[in-house]
Amino acid sequence: MSDISKCLTINGVIMIKTAVLDVTQIEPRLKHPTIFEHFDALEQGESFIIHNDHDPRPLYYQLLGERGNIFTWDYLQSGPDVWEVQITKPAKEQAEETVGEIAAKDVRKADVFKKLGIDFCCGGKLTLKEAIAEAGLDEEEVKAALARSEAAGGGQATHDFDSWDLGFLADYIYNVHHKYTRENGPIIEQLADKVASRHGNTHPELFELAKGVKVLMENLYSHLQKEERVLFPAIKTLESSGERAQMTVGIEGPVHMMEAEHDDTGDELRELRRLTKGYELPADACNSYTYLFDKIKEFEDDLFQHIHLENNILFPKALKLEKERLSNADAV
Ligand SMILES: [Fe+2]
Ligand SMILES: [Fe+2]
Which of 78, 88, 29, 15 is nearest to 51 (CA)? Predict the structure, then answer.
């Protein structure tokens, strides 16, 4: 291994000393681990350069898959004989975690987001700053609430979803959330029809609500079926196929399709909230009316957790695993 240093010059001024890792001198099986060691040792704002005799593009995907979108990748030389890439961990602000990632790691923070109305499942790809702005909240207050949840200790996840095998997590989602949806969806549909027929004259928005509930449920039933028939089995195959995986069917397309459908579900739920002014009961609401609103709120909570587990844990981890498999098949 050759590990020399190079001074980077910006506007004629020597700025930082950056390590250059000559990958051509490293034993093949040690190439990736060595590069990862260098990467992990970087502080925010630091970088190193890899020197190679061919394009190290597969490494880019492996790094992205294993460490996430927390680095920049800049070609300083692009062949034909020498390739040099500068890999940088940007300063903290640029590499800010998304609310989905924060919620996936710590359920106490997910609870804070839920209480404050910060959408961490369908809107989970926003950074904390962006999500706070979207919810119209005060950044300092939200950060203080998050810090308090950390300091409070206890209350950590009863299930550490983030550490589960993907197949196990997919089975959990099916057994808990898909079954809940199938059992409770029809109950809510019937209830919404009944309440609309009884109270629609004085509260015409109930007809719209019943129609919206039907659309939501129909879309959900077809969505669950796609996950159960296509995506979840593909994720399980990917996980069990080991290092020798033959990448015949990619999961990226199905994952993006499911994420887009989650966004549609989020829109449909928001519309139901708008119609009912946040499920505010009128003074003349009967027991069925009250039960309907309670049931929809409960359904919304379950769906929120369901989509969170898929959008923020199952899908990103499955995509990362697929990238690893691909890059192992085509190592630097
Ligand atoms: Fe699902
Ligand atoms: Fe889903």
Answer: 78
